[in-house]
């Protein structure tokens, strides 16, 4: 029984998937994990995957902003939450953004922070897991092909920039920790702990206005 007002769709078979993958996300094992774990499952489910490997920041953003989406049945992001943020904001910059947002999106955890993947795993009724177990669960969800709507949040900054989020917006201490800990990606989740300790040692004051 689905919640009131919530509708579901089903991916076609065979299915054409564009996989946007950041090889440097998390501990840097995303590409290896894709070939070893994800690709065999997708092949069994009759999902043909074309992999686009990002080479720099905003690469995925540019790709989906310009891509002819009609050739894909779904967009799959294998990375942390940051790459999906790029994809969502790239889609929102398209002139046909309303149609683009009807394209099913999938997240496969491959980063340090995999909050959306963990949330989807939870709401799918699975036990709380991490690492390869979470990746396996999320890949299985993709293989089943069932998709539904997801809310977005819109934010306008004082400089006039508009951003979209599917999780939350951060500013100040937490954002600084997230950005500064990028250089410790190889540590996985421990990067955030190290970044927090460093910023606690040199606390600063943040001044802003929320309206």
Q: Would you give an account of this structure?
A:
- The chain has 211 residues and is an alpha/beta fold.
- It has two domains: 11-154, Probable inorganic polyphosphate/atp-NAD kinase, domain 1 (Rossmann fold), CATH 3.40.50; 170-210, no CATH class.
- It has eight helices and eight strands.
- Strand 7 and strand 8 form a beta hairpin.
- Helix 7 (173-180) crosses helix 8.
- The model has no long low-confidence stretch (mean pLDDT 90).
- Its EC number is 2.7.1.91.
- InterPro entries: ATP-NAD_kinase_N, Diacylglycerol_kinase_cat_dom, Lipid_Phosphate_FormReg, NAD/diacylglycerol_kinase_sf.
Question: What would the keywords be for this entry?
Answer:
211 residues; alpha/beta; two-stranded antiparallel sheet; Rossmann fold
